[in-house]
Every structure is written in C-alpha cells, then in structure tokens.
Design brief:
By secondary structure, the chain is an alpha+beta fold. Among the domains are: 90 residues, Phosphorylase Kinase, domain 1; 174 residues, Transferase(Phosphotransferase) domain 1 (Transferase(Phosphotransferase), domain 1), CATH 1.10.510. It is 15% helix and 34% strand. The longest helix is centred in the N-terminal third of the chain and has 19 residues.
Length: 626
Amino acid sequence: METQRITQNFNQNSQPEDQLRSGSVLINRYLIQEVIGVGGMGSVYRARDLHFPNVVKLVAVKEMINQARDEQVRQTIIQNFEREANILATLSHPSIPRIFDYFSHDQRSYLVEEFINGRDLEDILNASPGPLPEEQVVSWAIELCDVLQYLHNHKPEPIIFRDMKPSNVMVNQDGHIVLVDFGIAKAFRVGQKGTMIGTEGYSPPEQYRGEATPLADIYALGATLHHLLTKRDPRVETPFTFNERPVRRFNPAVSPEMEAIISTAVQYNPADRFQSAEEMKEALIAAARKTGILSRISTKSISLTKDDGIKPMWTFQCEDEIRGSPGVDNGILFVGSYDNNLYALDVNDGKFLWKYPTEGGVVSRPAFAEGMVLFGSEDNRLYALSSRTGKLNWTYPTDGPIRCSPQVAEGHVFIGSDDGSMHAVNILSSRRVWKYDTGGPVRSSPFIQGDQLFFGSESGDLFCMDFRGTVKWRFRAKREIIASPLVVRNTLFFTSLDSTLYAVDARTGWAIWRFRMGKGSVSTPCNADSYIFVGSADGYIYCVDGGSSKEIWRFKTDHQVSGSPIVHRDSLYCGSADGNLYCLEYRTGRLRWKFQTGGPITSAPTIYNDILFIGSADHILYALLT
C-alpha cells in the first residue's frame, strides 16, 4: 500500500523552471541568494532579510507553488502549508526551526524560517561507506527523544510529527539535531482519525489507518535508527518486518542493548513500544552507560563527520596565496594577497569594491583609524588608504619587508619590519615619532594594553615598551619569537620557535611558567575563560590552563599548525597547513566540524556578525557561517 504524501520533501533531484533568480527580492524584504532544495511543490531558498541592513541575517524561504487542478486538492495543499506555519509559530525549542514570516505573493505561498546550516542524516548516511557508528547514532537519538518529548507534551494539544526519517533530521553546524519539514505534523486529539499520511517504511501500521498517536513517532524514530545503523533503507523493504531484520544481523558492531531498544521502538503493536519519548531516552542513556558510550559522548556537541558538511556563503578568488588575516571596517572586508594587492570587498556578499596594488606581497592583517585602512607590504612600506575609496593618503618607508600587522593607539601606528626595528608613526602626518632597534627582524605584531606595547623579535627577545619608545623590560627566549603575544589579566603569553609557550608577568617580565610543545610555534595564543589556546608545528592545537600550565586537551591535525586560533561563543576556530579549518568545542577539544580548502591555512580567521572569514594558499577567501 502506498502512503499518500500531501507535502513534498525538498531534494536536489529536480529543477523547476520557475525558480526565483538569485538577486530577486520578495516583498521588498527577502533577498534570494541561492536554491538549497527543490521539489515538486516549489523550492527552498537561502535568503537575506533586508530589514537588518547592518547585519547579515540569513533565512530559509520555503516556496509552495500550488498547481493542482482539483479544487479540493488545492485547498488541502494550502491547508497543510498553513498548518506548518501555524504549528511552527507555536513552538520554541532549539531543535525546531523558528518561523519568522508567512505570506503569499504572485500566486505562491512562502514560509520564512530559521536558516539551518548543515546536512540531513540521509545525506550523511549516503556519503558514508557503511553504517554510521553507534556512538554517533546514540547521541543523535537522545537529542531526537528530547525534541519528540517537547512536541508530545505541547500545550494545549500534543503535536505528532508523523514523518520522522533521516531526510527530515538535520545536523547543524554546531553538531546539534534540528527537526525539519513540519508539513504533515498535526495536533493530536484522542479518538480523532486523520489522513492516511507519512512515509512508507518509516510509518507504523496504525498511521496507515489514520490513527497516529505519539507512539507513531516512537516507531518512526526506531525505523530511522535502524536505517542509520544498518544502511538498509526501510522504504524498499516489506513494511512492518523489522522483527525479521534485527540490527546486529547486518551490523554486528552494534551492541545488543542498542538492538533491543530499536526492536522495542518498532513493535507492530503500539502497546509493546516505549510509551513515551522520555522512556525511550532513559533506555538509551542506560544502554550507553552500560556499554561505556555515555562517557565518550556529549549530547550537547556532536561532530559532523564529513569535510564538506559546511558550504561557504560566498568566496572570492585572488591571483595568489592569501597568507594574512582579513579585517572588517564599516561593512567592508579588507584582505591582502601575495599577488601584491589589498582587496576591499562587501562583507555581506563578497562583491569586489576596489583593490590597491603594492610592489610586494601583503601578508598582514590591516588596521583602521581616521577613515583609513593601514597595512604593510613586503615592498618595505606602510600604506594608509581611504577605506572607502582606496585612494592613497600616505606611505611610510622602512628598510625591510613588513610582515607583521600594524596596531593603532593614541594617534600613532606601531609597526615592525624586517629591518630589525619597531616604528612609531604619527597617523595624520605620516612622520616617524621614534624607531627602536630590536636586534632582529620584527614579524611579531605588537599587542597593546594601556600605555604599553608588547612584541617579539627574531633576536629571541620579548619587549615591553611604552608609547615613547622606552623599554620597560625584556624577556629572552631560546629562539626566535615570530608570533604575536597576548596579555590576559597582567599575564603575558607568547610562543617561540624553541617549542615553548611562555607565561610572563606583564608588569615585571618575570617568568611564571613554561609549557613544552612538540615543536616550535609561530601561532598567536588566544584565550577563553582560564584557558590559553595555541597551535604548534607538531600538528597539534593545545589548550592549556592559564594559571597552572596544565594541559587540558590537545587536538591533532594532519600537518603543522602555523595559523592562529580564535574563540567565538563556545567554539574554537583554527586553520592548519593540512588545508582544513577546524571548529572545536573549546572546553573539550571535541571536533564539531572541519572545512577543507585547497591549500595551507597560515593565518587567523576573522569573525564579523557571526560570519567567519578565512583565506587560504589556494588563493581563495571563504565566508562561512559560525
């Protein structure tokens, strides 16, 4: 018996001829950027909400083109689309997309929802060479029980999802479960029969008779977990035969405890199943505790296992490697390249605005002051341009390539050079205020706190200076200091090519502790809470307690980590010479996702309005949602 589906799942197997074009605007508010799904009823688009001009607020716009000839069918389709809008409007749960708008335009209906950046479980399963690991599936199952429990306890009436299956479950960029496509969800009333609706293979027998209750979602969840752990699609099997196809027959690696939970969930008789999502969740946790899985998983942080799970919002290609970090000022993103240019792009869509050519590679992060963008070049010059037009205001010459980033304070720009000096330049006049000989090339970008300047030199010295150019103290490492230092609550942290992360009293220069890494480091530390994070040429990203120097965790990449980490919210982002940008849960070091570029990443990411920007040696600047 085939199941009647009123709503269509959106996939990428068909391409309607009447799709909205990229760049079109709906009701003067939603700027269409890209099609992210298509189906028989219309398309799903990623769009930008123009009611927020100063930030990039992305939404998913779900379109319904009603072309049914039968009037009754047309009305049913409209009612189901409106039902989805009405149901979502009453729900508030982190695993359910928020609804922002619902409207009709040009004989089409649109539902505007929270944009979920991630992949659905069917896509993840199809990309996997075999069944998914039990540890991963248990984590997802616990989260799914949470959201079903919320729906089934909804007031004033329980909500039955009625279409649990892998393609309707997304794993977002942070690794959390999100339930999508509420087109056939329905408020449950005892004794009321509904339409015979669902997806064959996942739906229980009573749902075929229009008698779906909360226990129907339990069955469909069990069928979904069976599919993930066996990679046997229930849609091509004889319905209601899960008892003849136990999980361990196809995947002996699954524990007997997990097999028993799935077997209970997919019982033909509803009375023989778990009687609530909460009961099933408790069984999952008990089984995970018994098998040891519970100690290895975090239901709050689950990894995406594929490199390509994250799709850029936009990209921009330069003519050579991007080794420096981008910077953002007044809605303009600036990035230098080894093609000798500084580029100015629209931060929202990557649109090219202007570029300024120098005579050397630009590898530093730009700074901003007085309406100007300031940056150094390997042509030995510091440049000051109008950030709006790219017009040159002035240049300041040094006697060597400039490979560190400028810092601005008190009307001065401080910049190091390979000429072995730190320079202080007046921003308005471009005149030198002072110059200090450090005894070696300065590629360490200065860190400013109060009226003091901290920076390292390839002489192996870490300097503390005031704004007048007077050295307050210096600390000697065993080898070159190339990375920039960091000051947190009067403690200075920095790395050296001598394989050490140092903690020094920022007031006196006295050593507090040393942490030994496997190899040298050119990575600038960052911090969150009491933790210090840094990369090393040994291929690890380290998390160290800033007070005690105790190692909290380390994460192994596939090459040296010469890029610098940053922390945003509860995630740490860091690039590696293996070409990957890694997103880790900063408290545990657990991988959330990774994004692969076509070349080594040697700089630090920049985050602006929850969008991460990172350049790669593949010549491309990427804009990714965090």
